[in-house]
Amino acid sequence: MLRSIPEHWIERLFSRMSSLYGSRFADMWRDGDIDEIKAAWREGLAGQNDDALRRGVAALFHEKNPPTLPRFLELCRPQPTMYTPNAAAVTDDRRTPPEQAREQLARIRNVAGALLREHGAPAGGGIRWAFRLLQRAENGEHVTVHQIGFAREAIESYSRTHGQHINGHQREPGSDDE
């Protein structure tokens, strides 16, 4: 069974639309019996829940013209999230205390410095970005832990294929000395 809309709610809705649209709203119903029109709206809105009706009323403020019943029913539908402007994002609003942030930055600088000392920047290799990033972190610029992780992974991968082997001889790319 569909939820019926109370008559006083339709009265309030029509009063709201009249105050928003003025004579345009009155002209819209000029040739019809207003009681029949309100009865049709009550029947058409039957089954709408309170949230849907609130959405419809709130959307009236953005409509340039008074809506027909089918248009008002469209206004009552929720907008798909992907089209919702400024959709709420899931965020963590907690703030790190300044002393803890300083400790974390110091750890990042230490990791970056250790990687730079361990591997040394290559003269030309394709991972100069990783060493520049580590240098920025060591100099105290803002670098995230994830960026450090990516840089470390790139440097270690590069070192395996272009660096010094454990037994001391140089690795030539493409050689079969592994």
Describe it.
The protein is an all-alpha fold and 178 residues long. It has 2 domains: 7-83; 98-162, no CATH class. It has helices spanning 7-21, 23-28, 34-45, 50-59, 69-76, 98-119, 128-138, 145-162. The model has no long low-confidence stretch (mean pLDDT 80).
Keywords:
mainly alpha; 8 helices
Domain unit count: 2
Average pLDDT taken over every residue: 80
- Please provide the ordered H/E string of secondary-structure elements: HHHHHHHH
**Sheet of most strands:** none
Short description:
The protein contains 8 helices and no strands.
How are the SSEs ordered, and which strands pair?
Elements: H1 7-21, H2 23-28, H3 34-45, H4 50-59, H5 69-76, H6 98-119, H7 128-138, H8 145-162
Helix pairs in contact: 1-3, 4-5, 6-7, 6-8, 7-8
